Amino acid sequence: MSDTRRLGRLGDWLEERMGWRTAVRAWLDHPVVGGAPWAAAMAASVATCFGVLALTGLTLMTAYGASPQAAWASVHYVQFVQGGGWVVRGLHYWAAQALFVLAALHVVHGAFAASYRRPREVAWWLTLAIFGLALAAGITGGLLPWDERGWWARTVEGNIIGLAPGLGSWLQQMMEGGTELGALGLSRMVTLHTMVLPPLLAVMLWARRGIVSRHGWVDTRGAPLSRATQILRDGLVAVGVLAVVFALAAAAHGAPLEAPADPMGDYPARPEWFLMTLYELRKMFHGAGEFVGTTLVPMVVGLYFALLPWLDRPGRSRSALLAPAVLIFVGTLVLGWIPAQKDAHDEAYVRQRAKADRRAAAAATLAMGGVPPEGALAMVRNDPELRGRDLFDQHCASCHVLGDLGDPKKATASKLDGWGTPQWISAMIHDPDAPEFFGRGPFLGNMPSVDVRPKDKPAADAWKPMAASEAERGVVAAFLASQGDEPGDPSRALAEASRATGERIVSGRCANCHLYKGDGDVDGSDVAPELARYGSIGWTRAQIANPATVETYREKALGEDLKKHMPRFDKDLSPADIDLVARWTRAHARGLSFP
Q: What pTM does this model have?
């Protein structure tokens, strides 16, 4: 007997005892109240997103660690290590974005289709509540990865909530779990996101569907189509939504994951995209009036939609009634678009955003080797490459430029790309006052070129260059570069004769102003640096700790007459951090591997 016949006989047996076929046919053939409009399938799209969220959410929770130490690492494991994990996470993330968008469109369409009219008022309020729950789900779920984006966005959103008079500060404290968003705040968000909001959303979707089944989508007299037709249309819409969600997840290869949350970092904080309108509204008011943009305006908008069943009365103009809805819809889009455009044209924000992206990529790569028990943030902070970069960015990039760090327009000290190499030294001693060397700092005009006549010296006056030719300048540069060589550096091909010539010129001609092995400075400048071991790790470390020592630039380097001179950092940084940033700077300036 074939499988089909066995299933048929089983169906017959169940039909005889339960009458299931008769019940299903009666349910499918039952006419839909008011017809089966395509617009009614919009609710099916919201339910589809909820279904995807529920299924993927349950799967994700099997691998999630709900603590600041484990959250990021568990999400990283799902995204980058677990087979197919990025698909599940991507579906969950993009279904959440789609849920919010579709719920918002459902509200807007319902307002224009008058789905709030008697006797559907409760269904309309449930539609508004579903939108609010979608918003809450987005806010609570965004924190769960415990990455920079989620942590800082929740901090901004907490500040917005805190502006509300009365319960605002209490709600903010409940959201954050203390003076700063931490373990307790994460625990509360996880509870809301997984145990409170989903059941509420499910109940409201079910209740709203029951009301619509009883009274219809809107007050129309559509053709008496069967429920099977409505199911078919709902199914087609659901398939379309699933296709879009799958496409977005595939295009993004899952969902974004930034570096681990760091409250001490300088992440360019922004709220979630669906709260950018409130973010912009807040900036339109000042001081105590900020609550108008963050609380009063949203409350008025919500009240307007909730009161539509009473505002829409026979004889009243529909155009006048729905004008606020049009204004709200357009205003929301425009106010959400404005900050995005501002950020796109803000050079400082673009640099910060690029830095955050690089940090996220570095953290993801670093975590492939395992995350320590202390957590992902400790992993990032203790990584020499990331910490060295952070130290340079925090303490050096305000004056110097190295790679993508620093602002060339605002730099007041030497550009460090290539620093310590023969090419950099040769260009510097040829034109010390160039903008990329000393041209923007306190030593402008202090150092003469080794082969170019000073501008203030008449042509008739006797003048002898310190480097008689370009080749001799190259020899000097190669010798000075060799002073910074360390064990493990690439071998430098410098003939002994060239080394001797370079040392002779440095110790003889350059030592009029500079020190070389502690001797020199015939002119008594007390400023020009020591050239022995110039560019080495020890020299660089001493320069960062305190430039006013005989090891580098000596006492007058910190003189009051030298404005914007390099400060000493031995009072702000530990010896270990000074050593780290010295090694990091030297390696990246010379193009060497680090650590």
A: 0.81
